[in-house]
Amino acid sequence: MYSDNFDNKLKDYINTFGNFVDYNDNVNDAYFVFDFYGSYDFNLFDALDNSKIFLQVNNLFDNLYSAYAIGKEFFPAAERNFIAGIQIGL
After folding, report:
1. 35 and 55 Cβ atoms separated by less than 8 Å
2. Of 23, 47, 51, 57, which is least packed with CB atoms within 10 Å of its CB?
3. How far apart, in whole angstroms, are the C-alpha atoms of residue 47 and residue 55?
């Protein structure tokens, strides 16, 4: 995706108008991330049901990529992160 409204014509605009902008790359490269989510449902006690333990890992392979860009500013996405927890039903 492009980081501005000039699309693939940015180089033409720079050649025509000189100091039109102060950057020459407006393409946010494609990326692929792999996330994982696993859970296990169980009954903790006879009085409690629908209990669950879970683990979620985002960006499992820890890819470095830009998820967002505006003009010459590219913003990196989150590195590998995870969350784990227990849900106890009543």
Report:
1. no
2. 47
3. 25
Q: CA-CA distances (angstroms) from residue 73 to 14, 24, 35, 39, 46? A: 18, 12, 26, 38, 56
Q: What is the SS3 assignment for 17?
A: helix
> What is the pTM for the complete model shown?
0.69
Report pLDDT digits (tens) over 26-82. 888 888 999 999 999 988 777 667 889 999 999 999 999 998 888 888 899 999 999
Task: Give yes or no for a contact between 42 and 67, defined as CB atoms under 8 angstroms apart.
Answer: no
In the chain, count H helices and then E strands: 1, 5
